Structure formats: structure tokens, C-alpha cells
Amino acid sequence: MYAGARLRQLREDRSLSQSDLARMLGISASYVNQLEHDGRPLSLAVLLKLTEHFGVDAEFFAAHDTARLVADVREVFADDTLDDSISPGEVDELTTKLPGVARVVVALHRRYRKSVENIAALTAEQGMDRTSARQPHEQVRDWFYARNNHVPALDEDAEELSVRLRLRPGEVRSGLVAALRDRHGVRVVGEPLGTGRHEFDRRGRLLRLAPTLRPGQAAFRLASELAMLEAGEAIDRLVDRAGFGDETARRLLRIGLANYYAGALVLPYRVFLGAAERLRYDVTLLSGEFGVGFETVCHRLSTLQRRGAHGVPFSFVRVDRAGNISKRQSATGFHFSRVGGSCPLWIVYEAFGAPGRILTQIAELPDGKKYFWLARTVTQAAGGHGDPGKTFAIGLGCELRHAGRLVYSDGLELGKGAAVTPIGMGCKVCERPACPQRAFPAIGRPLRVDEHASGVVPYPPLA
């Protein structure tokens, strides 16, 4: 394979010269120079030496990472607001010869799109003061969102611990109980806790679990407390680096990181990724194989972005009937509204009308980017008879180009004949004037008002 840009990146990340790398690999400096400029392909012998010396997977040099960057750059220059166009050949040359520049171009374009999201947040507040600081939970949510919902250090540490504890998929509870007892002197008991799910008495080394928890939920609670005990120092370092001034935000981030570690422990990266690829991302089958719920599997699928071992880059969202987004994570460029009020044509909201069924949709944003979405409701019981429960819609989406890897796309037309639903980020910032579902006029656009005529489209703009 030709992997000059990746080889150069690997060398520069470790502050090595071409001569240094040549000595490590037992080849000439001129050979290294030819490899980095794609004058010669990367041979199997050199590839093996690279993986041995640097501890990276062979997939690190695979072409699919470059292909993704090419697709991202093409998306930037496909923006119809640009007057000039760039040929596919120029895009390929930019991403191959100057991958760092290409990533900056993509990042700038995403920052522009982020500004559209910020406008949506401002207008959706309807006059509320947005100069005040973000709420603590918003700070934590945005911290994970900025990292594509992937924390490599915790993910790898949890995976290693899973191996040491010999945890078996779908049968992790007994292993976690034993680990808490043998490694930390913690005793686990089942005990009614009212509306609580678990309580940990650190001084008495006693962990109480509500007997109403399902097996997967109980395992996750056990794993989250084990995370605090096993990786507490690593979690504290990440919290300190986040720079949150609010103590509530710091505590929420600590909980979020412990939960992340728990997910990586119960669903270890390589085992889970292998099962996901083998089962073609069938969430129901993955839930059964690992003994966890639909939401947990979807959330974990949105984190599979380890360098050299990528899964499908998913966006994950959880919403309630009122349209409030309580969880949102993304490894893609999908635009989420920060404060709810997203497009009612989005399949995530339609899921409430078909409880328990998995619905699919090909959705197109105003910038022309297409995504494949699946959605299903989940219900969480709160207690006994008469106690209100909680119902959410879970959405999992990826760029349409990845849809063929999902079992949910079987039998669907994904090409030019695909049935596409145009959606937006919210009516006040949506650029689609002909949408019959519009609830508000778009800001900054004058309306065509005729006292003696009416139509299907509300708030029609002036031509």
C-alpha cells in the first residue's frame, strides 16, 4: 500500500527524523523519503517492523482513513454557497500530500456549521438571557461531544481490566461482584432503595443495589463503582484538565467518565466491535449477546472511534415526547439542536407513535449531507403501580455512505432512487421555504403576506 502521509505523521508525532526512522527499520534514509512521498509502496516487511516498533495496528496505515478525509473535504467544497469548485483530483492531492491542511479546512467548515447550531440555540431560547454560563450538565455534554464521545485512555484501561478479570460477554455480574470483593473489599447486597438504583457506602465498603434493576443495569452500576476505585486517579486528571470552575460540573464529569469506563468494561472495545461487525450492527442481537439494554448498546456504538480500529461513526441521541434532547453524542458532523425543537420530520420523533418498533429513515440536511437513521422507544419503570415511568426515543444515525454495513439497510434503495426526507435543525433557522410542517418563519427572511390567498405552506417567504 501507499501510505506516505500516515508514515510521515507517525514519525513526526514521535519527533523522529527520516534518518532516525531509517535506523530503527534497518533501511536507508532515501528509502524512507521515497515511502513518505509515495514513491514506493509500504512493503509487508517494513509494515511489520513499524507495528512492532511503534505499537500501532496495521490498520493505522490502511486507506480507509484517507478515504474518510477525502469524503469530508469533498463535502466542504460541495457547499453550494461557494462560487468556485475543486476537482476530485485536486481533493485527492490535497488529502494525500497535505493531510494536516485538509483537516484544518474540514475543521473550519465544521466550525461554520457549528455557528448555525449556536444560532439555533439562541433563537430557540425565545428571549432568555444566553449571556449567562452554561448549565453544568451542558458543559459536561459538550465536553464529550467535542471528543466524538471517545476517551482513549479510559477505553483501553477498561478493556485491559476486562481481560484480567476474565469477564465473559453477557455474564459479567458475578465477575464484577468478585472484583469489588477481592480487589477492594466491597460487599454487594440487594436492598430496596425507594426510587434509588444504587448506593455505595465508602466507609462501610457496602454497595447496595435495588432489586428492581435488570441484570444489565445492575452490571453497569457495579462497573461504574469499580471504575471509581480502579481508575479514580485517571478520571480525576481528566476532570482537572477540563478546567471547569463549577464544582457541580466537575462532579457530573466525574460521573460521566465513570459511566464511560463502565460501558467500556461491560462492552470491551475489540470484543464488542468484532461482534458489531459480525452481526452487522443489529442492536437487538447485540443486546442479547452482551446482556444489556437497547440504549446502552446504541450509546456504546457511538464511541467506537479508536485509531486504527474504527467502527461505523454514529451519532446517538435520546429525546423525550416534548422534544427535549437529554443525551447527544456524535462521531459524525450531524447538527444537533442544543435546546430541543428539532425538525418534527426527523424519525426520532415518529418513534413515539410506534412503541418498541425500530424505524428507519434517510434524512437530508439543508447542506445536502445525507444520514441513515434508526429509532426506537425505550421505557424505564420508576416503581410500582401508579408511579410514573420514563419513555424516551433513542436515535442512532450514520452518514449514508456507511449504511450498507448495517442490517437495517437491507432491501432499501440507498442510491439516487432512495426515499429521502428533508429535515432541518429547527424552524427558525431552517432554510427550506416549502416545508408544510414549519411552525415558525425563518429569522431574517421577509414573508409574503396576502390577505386574500392561502396555501399549504405556512409563512411563505418573499421570492
UniProtKB/TrEMBL annotation:
<dbReference type="InterPro" id="IPR010982">
    <property type="entry name" value="Lambda_DNA-bd_dom_sf"/>
</dbReference>
<dbReference type="InterPro" id="IPR018653">
    <property type="entry name" value="ScfR_C"/>
</dbReference>
<protein>
    <submittedName>
        <fullName>Short-chain fatty acyl-CoA regulator family protein</fullName>
    </submittedName>
</protein>
<keyword id="KW-0238">DNA-binding</keyword>
<dbReference type="InterPro" id="IPR010359">
    <property type="entry name" value="IrrE_HExxH"/>
</dbReference>
<dbReference type="InterPro" id="IPR001387">
    <property type="entry name" value="Cro/C1-type_HTH"/>
</dbReference>
<dbReference type="Pfam" id="PF09856">
    <property type="entry name" value="ScfRs"/>
</dbReference>
<dbReference type="InterPro" id="IPR026281">
    <property type="entry name" value="HTH_RamB"/>
</dbReference>
<keyword id="KW-0805">Transcription regulation</keyword>
<keyword id="KW-0804">Transcription</keyword>
<dbReference type="Pfam" id="PF06114">
    <property type="entry name" value="Peptidase_M78"/>
</dbReference>
<feature type="domain" description="HTH cro/C1-type">
    <location>
        <begin position="7"/>
        <end position="61"/>
    </location>
</feature>
<dbReference type="Pfam" id="PF01381">
    <property type="entry name" value="HTH_3"/>
</dbReference>
<comment type="similarity">
    <text>Belongs to the short-chain fatty acyl-CoA assimilation regulator (ScfR) family.</text>
</comment>
<dbReference type="InterPro" id="IPR050807">
    <property type="entry name" value="TransReg_Diox_bact_type"/>
</dbReference>
